[in-house]
From TrEMBL:
Residues 1-29 are annotated as: Disordered. One of its GO terms (biological process) is regulation of cell growth. Gene3D superfamilies: 2.10.260.10. It comes from Vreelandella subglaciescola. SUPFAM superfamilies: AbrB/MazE/MraZ-like. This is Antitoxin PrlF.
Length: 120
């Protein structure tokens, strides 16, 4: 008797799933539900693309790896907070109100096309 993971792998190897999606004006796309399910993708997961010389594109679930820039930045913050704890201040009602005032009326349009020179 096969275990569930082995059965799932055998089923995936035997099945071919094809689907398509369109690019928005911002060069974004939605990964179809059938592909998300087959690759066990969830929100905020990463995708790896491999473009082969014959024009085929292989899309797979990318394994998460630590972001070296983020790790360095967090280490910097930790050191600064330990060295200068007096600089740590809570977000107060007045500072939140100020941030809301400064951003009032600003609504990002996530469907707005990017400038032509932003494709690079």
């Amino acid at each position: 008797m096969m275990n569930t993971a082995t059965e799932s792998q055998a089923t995936m190897q035997a099945a071919t799933i094809e689907d398509s999606s369109a690019l928005t004006d911002r060069n974004q796309t939605t990964v179809p539900a059938s592909i998300r399910k087959a690759l066990h993708l969830g929100r905020r997961d990463r995708i790896r693309y491999e473009v082969r010389s014959n024009g085929e594109v292989v899309m797979s679930r990318a394994e998460r790896s630590p972001d070296p820039a983020m790790a360095s930045f967090l280490a910097f913050l930790e050191q600064d907070m330990q060295a200068h704890p007096q600089n740590i201040r809570p977000v107060t009602a007045s500072s939140l109100a100020e941030a809301q005032r400064l951003t009032a009326g600003m609504e990002p349009d996530l469907d707005e096309a990017l400038p032509e020179d932003d494709d690079e």
